[in-house]
Amino acid sequence: xPPGVGEHEKEDLLPEGSRLISKGxxxxxxxxxxxxxxLAGSLAAAGMKVVIYDLDERRALKAARRLGVRQxxxxxxxxxxxxxxxxxxxxxxxxxxxTAIEMRPGSLLVEISSVKTGVVEKVEAGxxxxxxxxxxxxxxxxxxxxxxxxxxxxxPVRLQRWRSPLYDLMERIGWRIVLSDVEEHDxxxxxxxxxxxxxxLCLASSVxxxxxxxxxxxxxxxxxLRILRRLNRDLGVILSIQRENPFAAEVRKAYCLSVLRLAxxxxxFEESVRESLRRLFEEIV
Length: 285
What we know:
By secondary structure, this protein is an alpha/beta fold. The chain is 53% helix and 14% strand. The protein folds into two domains: 17-180, Rossmann fold (3-Layer(aba) Sandwich); 185-284.
């Protein structure tokens, strides 16, 4: 349990952790999307009453039926003890601001944007003072076999009475909490997401340019091609992260310089690769 959490002053608005899980209502805005549906299912499994709202009403109805939760409309934000916004990065600020206006005093707004710079400060400044706010980022996608043990970055932007119940809920779901701030998160994601995806995008570009005879395809390359297909399916999200992360250009430049350095000096190629791998896995350990 995090330190510094006092008793709640208004139990009807903010119940204690166990009561929140058993009686609280969570509204997921964008709940028909793949991430939104996953979050809705996780919150329902933790014991919360869940309502999903999405502009695509047909998809929202289908998702609600599949998950065994309620479908709501634009007014649903007023029902939530917690309102989770799961929309593309470019829409996050506007959706959060328009949603928070409808929220009850004492409720909690959560967004899960994968880029925090340009989002957190605008949301915090624009939402009503009586609405608390946490910025999260699940470090797993909707294709994950299980969310149990999955890491979720938590930036406790404006948490007072909600701090303890939110920790309780995240632990009940089975998430591993990674506390962070805006800059630390985006710097880390510049390597974990931007650089990682960029390397695959460069590989796809090179293979496309050079061509490939699939008669000679190895199982290793087949696995890589499956990853590229998944990236292509989520290309809009990936390009958004490449565009919005403020440290993206820096890590892409570092990647390109590494490629040029390795390509230009064949004599030191093996030595450089061995040393880079040694340092990498020492840091991981």
